[in-house]
Amino acid sequence: MALADNDGEGRDLWKEKSIHKGGIWKRQINGVWWCLLSPSEEFRKVMERFAIEPRFWPFTIENAFPAALRFEARAEGAYTLAKVPQVDFFRDQGLVDRIAETTANLPEDDPALLYLLRPTTEAKDAFAAWITSPARLTPDNYASFGTILTRLKDVIA
């Protein structure tokens, strides 16, 4: 079983349009079952707010967690943002310019920043350790994975 980010690189793994929306497990010729992350409603709203086309959506593992949770991680030093747009936006120079200008004008507490800017390299490991601590392994924190897990149970059955 393999779970991939639903970003440009993850979507490039698939030539079928049916899997691009995420949350669908597909068995490949080599026997491995693959699934792209399924974008959360919170993420969708941010992408729609800034009129970002789905082909540029950077739905990564970090973006699968609610903004409020990542703000909490940031307050505890376990999550930091680079002042650089998400990598997927660089697939279109006009979009990256628009996102850079937009994020420069957003207040630091706007949840959109957590979806539009990429986390720092150091943040990936720190956040992974923080989010997987036993106290944070709750259904609410991992709600974005619900559809994927339900469909995985169906595949296993």
Structure write-up:
This protein has 157 residues and is of the alpha+beta class. It has one domain (2-156). Helices cover 39% and strands 11% of the residues. The strands form two sheets. It has a three-stranded mixed beta sheet, with no helix packed on it. It is globular and about 50 Å long.
Q: Major sheet: size, sense and barrel closure?
A: 3 strands, mixed
- How much is the radius of gyration in Å? 16 Å
Q: Mean pLDDT, rounded to whole units? A: 90
| Secondary-structure class | alpha+beta
Topology:
Elements: E1 2-4, H1 8-12, E2 26-27, E3 33-36, H2 41-49, H3 67-75, E4 81-85, H4 93-104, H5 112-116, E5 117-119, H6 121-131, H7 146-156
Parallel strand pairs: 1-3
Antiparallel strand pairs: 2-3, 4-5
